[in-house]
Amino acid sequence: MDNTLQLILRADIQKIFDNFAATVNKKIVFFSPDGKILTSGLNCRNAAFCRIIQTRIFGYERCIRMDTVNMNESARRKGMVCYRCHAGIQEAVTPIYVEDQLAGFAMIGQFRTSRKISARVKKACPSPAIYDKLETAFNQLPYYPPGKLRDVLGMFSMLVDYIVTKELVTVHGDRIRSRIDAFISANLHRPVTLAEVAKHAGKSCSTISHFFQQKLNKSFKRHLLEKKLEKAEEYFHMNPEMSIEEVAEKVGFHDQFYFSRLYRKYRGMPPSEYRRTFRGKHTPELL
Fold first, then answer.
1. What is the CA radius of gyration of the chain?
2. Which of 161, 177, 262, 272 has the most CB atoms around it within 10 Å of its CB?
3. pLDDT of residue 283
4. What would the pLDDT profile of 110-141 be if each residue is shown by its tens digit?
5. Which residues, listed in sequence order, are joined to residue 167 by a DSSP beta bridge?
6. What is the largest CA-CA distance in the chain?
7. Three-point CA angle 271, 272, 275, nearest 5°
8. DSSP state letter for 189
């Protein structure tokens, strides 16, 4: 699986996060597993307090390093990490896992949980004028007592879990689908059972059955049959000299008449007619 797995949020789901962020007057940012920003809800800028901290006092790189450390810690714990940054402001980051694969991170902040700027930050200010601006920006941040902060972060965590549980996050490349199709393609010459596919994909039979119904809107048997018919048509194209009996054998049917009945049922014509039609379309005219 590609380690640069990217997380993409559907527009309607992004709107849920945007509305939540607007309600609590905070910023939600989604990151890839390697820490690159994917989306920043409502295109919000950092709070004025943080901008002063980053541009006039501690520098932007220090914030990035702290965020990276806490992303790694949240991935290690497989749970949310709430931390106080070097400027004395609370932030939280939670990992997002899809099928046990780290797909990215969601971060929310920044929360003021104290009434005064920390003595360390005050001491680091290069001038009284900058401190005055910093203090004004600090007081503009909404104050969150511990109980309220726990409620906000609890709701944020629930939103992320809901998205993953309801599979409203899509990932570049579907691991289950690719594993299933690879196994089926390699075994089209014989009968393939749901139990075999589930074992190969590392899932239960019920999970695979649910996957087909929810993701592909069809049963496993129907998907398998379609793959067999598609492969049969590939043989008709590439090896037009093969008999229908030989093609049926190649895709796991030992009874060519049963194969022909199924082909006619799902393709609307017998395989002999399909092959004849295809040949007619691709036979060059004699000069």
1. 29
2. 262
3. 46
4. 899 999 999 999 999 999 999 999 999 999 99
5. none
6. 94
7. 85
8. T
Domains plus CATH for the chain?
Answer: 7-171 (3.30.450), 175-282 (1.10.10.60)
pLDDT at 4 over 50: no
- C-alpha angle with apex 258: 254 to 259, nearest 5 degrees? 75
Residue 165 pLDDT > 90: no
Helix or strand run (H / E) with residue 40: strand 37-40
Tokens of 163: 């998205």
Contact 82, 89 (CB under 8 A): no
| Burial group, residue 58, by CB count within 10 angstroms (0-12, 13-18, 19+) | middle
The answer to whether 67 and 56 are in contact (CB under 8 A) is no
Question: What residues are paired with 82 via a beta bridge?
Answer: 92
At residue 111, the 3 state secondary structure works out as strand
User: Which 3 state secondary structure label does DSSP give 263?
Assistant: helix
Assess contact for 31 and 38: CB atoms under 8 A: yes
Rounded to an integer, the average pLDDT of 176-196 is: 90
Query: Residue 50 and residue 53: Cα distance in Å, rounded?
Result: 5
Compute CA 253 distance to the chain's CA centroid, rounded to the nearest angstrom.
38
The pTM for the full model equals 0.61
The pLDDT score that the predictor gives to residue 264 is: 95
Q: CB neighbours (10 Å) of residue 1? A: 11
Q: What pLDDT, on the 0 to 100 scale, is given for residue 172?
A: 47
Residue 192 neighbours by CB under 8 Å, 6+ apart: 183, 184, 224, 252
Give the model's pLDDT for residue 252: 94
